[in-house]
Amino acid sequence: xxxxxxxxxxxxxxxxxxxxxxxxxxxxxxxxxxxxxxxxxxxxxxxxxxxxxxxxxxxxxxxxxxxxxxxxxxxxxxxxxxxxxxxxxxxxxxxxxxxxxxxxxxxxxxxxxxxxxxxxxxxxxxxxxxxxxxxxxxxxxxxxxxxxxxxxxxxxxxxxxxxxxxxxxxxxxxxxxxxxxxxxxxxxxxxxxxxxxxxxxxxxxxxxxxxxxxxxxxxxxxxxxxxxxxxxxxxxxxxxxxxxxxxxxxxxxxxxxxxxxxxxxxxxxxxxxxxxxxxxxxxxxxxxxxxxxxxxxxxxxxxxxxxxxxxxxxxxxxxxxxxxxxxxxxxxxxxxxxxxxxxxxxxxxxxxxxxxxxxxxxxxxxxxxxxxxxxxxxxxxxxxxxxxxxxxxxxxxxxxxxxxxxxxxxxxxxxxxxxxxxxxxxxxxxxxxxxxxxxxxxxxxxxxxxxxxxxxxxxxxxxxxxxxxxxxxxxxxxxxxxxxxxxxxxxxxxxxxxxxxxxxxxxxxxxxxxxxxxxxxxxxxxxxxxxxxxxxxxxxxxxxxxxxxxxxxxxxxxxxxxxxxxxxxxxxxxxxxxxxxxxxxxxxxxxxxxxxxxxxxxxxxxxxxxxxxxxxxxxxxxxxxxxxxxxxxxxxxxxxxxxxxxxxxxxxxxxxxxxxxxxxxxxxxxxxxxxxxxxxxxxxxxxxxxxxxxxxxxxxxxxxxxxxxxxxxxxxxxxxxxxxxxxxxxxxxxxxxxxxxxxxxxxxxxxxxxxxxxxxxxxxxxxxxxx
Length: 771
Ligand SMILES: Nc1nc2c(c(=O)[nH]1)N[C@H]1C(S)=C(S)[C@@H](COP(=O)(O)OP(=O)(O)OC[C@H]3O[C@@H](n4cnc5c(=O)[nH]c(N)nc54)[C@H](O)[C@@H]3O)O[C@H]1N2
Ligand SMILES: Nc1nc2c(c(=O)[nH]1)N[C@H]1C(S)=C(S)[C@@H](COP(=O)(O)OP(=O)(O)OC[C@H]3O[C@@H](n4cnc5c(=O)[nH]c(N)nc54)[C@H](O)[C@@H]3O)O[C@H]1N2
Ligand SMILES: [Mo]
Description:
- Belongs to the prokaryotic molybdopterin-containing oxidoreductase family.
- It contains 26 helices and 29 strands.
- It has 771 residues and is of the alpha/beta class.
- The protein folds into four domains: 44 residues, no CATH class; 263 residues, 3-Layer(aba) Sandwich (Rossmann fold), CATH 3.40.50; 257 residues, Dimethylsulfoxide Reductase, domain 2; 134 residues, Beta Barrel (Barwin-like endoglucanases).
- It has a six-stranded mixed β-sheet with strand order 5-4-19-18-17-6. It has a six-stranded mixed β-barrel with strand order 24-28-25-27-26-29.
- A hairpin with a 2-residue loop joins strand 1 and strand 2.
- Helix 7 runs parallel beside helix 8.
- The longest helix has 19 residues.
- The chain is globular and about 85 Å long.
- 59% of the residues are buried.
């Protein structure tokens, strides 16, 4: 019998085809003009050999090898759910009693899955919060640095997360769009919470057709699809702030800066200007100064600056620019450029970030909330900036400076992760693995034997979304989707909420955790909360029953002529509609930031050479700049077992994109296997020659499951091609403390030895207990 079930994931809405208890196929969601290929991997992922069948405990943990022990090499022992629940309740109670609640790290960063009720991290944090508290994390790997910086400069993070100036306004009014880091088509495949319509490509093409000239300022030509007809300005990674400063210098020299706007809408121009002209430090930031830093010819910089001053211009940067050393600087400087052009708040002009980073950025839409869970309370209130997790484990009791605060780092005993994979997302995995050893107990809830599950002590098998009912929703999308359970839970997998409810029960607070609702009652509850929030905004959502039966709701579209420009009110009347900054204006100099006294993020935007870049001393030993961008074939580590990701690999290894000259210099051909290495680590990759990659730059997508040649050895080569064995784990600055993955130098050499098989998709060693 064949059944069709409405469903959703971060990579799109779809119908699941179900035959005899198996998901056998996928049909794209009808209203989606551009569903993308990722949904095709869903059946492979759900039924992968790498699914975790039962709860497991690391054998060494049972035998007392806990704090100080490197994880990843020991076999696992299967246990019953009852045993696992008991161990967790005892261990949680013990650590809370002996070390206090902050000894549990429940930051649990990660994308989890699209359903808003069974969102694993939300469930875990609710469980830990109601149980007495935990150390949590703030900000996101995606844009931690910008999230911390932008409230100081513009008084909002909307310029980063949405609602931003929409494509309708850009197409109608802008003539030029400068895209630092491009508008990568691959990134629009996904949206957190689900994508009902992938309208991102459609909207960009419409803007190009309306006469917007796109300029792709990026090391990689492929960051803007050919159809947009963009001019490609190749730039060395990590040097964008220098190019922006030089554009500013051209404007000042030509007298083209908008002095009225700088006086009426900005503060600190008198501090930034002398830095640009060189009066402050003796170095005028001219195009001739920037050319050798950036690799962009001085004439190109000059031409683009003057073109910006002559035409209605939109400025944007990919989120990747701030996941780099001193990632605050290009963002702050791009805002300064937009201010100098007087473009902020003018129809279809100004600045916003991430148009090319995720589906739904700049999609014209009505402002309505998304379906969401109630907020979580953490009575302890202790947090770290998310990407400082290794540092937290390494330096308990010491101070971490962050955004003007001194955080005393906790002494972590339990690490508990649900819905995220630090062995995917974190930088310098060899270092993380050593720091990871400081924990006494590591708990991981996962559907698959991903690297984080393999490096845990207690592993709990979670259901995938296809094994439960849920609701998908995102504020960046116009559709709310009913996710119908398609198949029963595989093997002994359980829902995150249910496994945690049992531990809460053993600890005496089941009813507070569940609020005595089951899955069906929770879905109705979340839906009703949303329905009520929509009503005052003019949208009457149907009843839950009608929604569930229909499979989705389409929120009404805006009127055809409507458009939105961010900061329009502020531009029109800065005194009546001030920004939420200390001065109510755009802060080109921030007294607050200056008062922190951080030399790695002073009071106005500056050029600081990254620690690792093509101009560094270190480039003599490691002459290639490695970008580790988002994968076109999966979502981070998710779907890596699927057909789309595996069809793209080269002899099972993640491709490394290389310029032909760099390949030739190393005697490499398309399809060769190489070892990519630096002082931190090494991985294998398969050569893919790309004519449109700036020489000296190479790129490997993130997400191939970490596969150390010797499990448990932090210095082992990753056989599969996870670039995070190579990336540096240093906060962008003491202000943002964001991840700086994009600042990474490597060398590449041909792999001539025998090629060991990739084992990351096969379960680890399991020892059945002796009866
Ligand atoms: N080098 C480098 N590293 C990077 C980046 C980069 O640009 N370069 N980008 C960074 C960015 S922007 C991000 S957002 C992060 C992403 O990092 P993550 O969000 O941690 O990556 P995912 O692979 O999406 O991890 C989600 C995990 O949740 C699991 N999961 C899914 N559904 C469920 C569920 O229902 N229950 C449970 N218990 N688990 C579930 C999945 O199997 C998966 O392992 O990576 C960061 N890392
Ligand atoms: N298919 C797919 N889409 C995704 C994701 C996924 O895993 N798969 N992940 C999602 C997530 S979590 C996020 S946060 C977003 C991230 O969105 P982004 O941060 O925009 O994505 P990236 O692919 O890391 O980077 C975009 C481009 O920036 C360029 N770039 C890198 N460094 C520099 C630099 O120093 N200067 C300049 N000028 N350009 C540079 C690279 O060539 C790269 O292709 O993507 C989302 N979209
Ligand atoms: Mo992200």
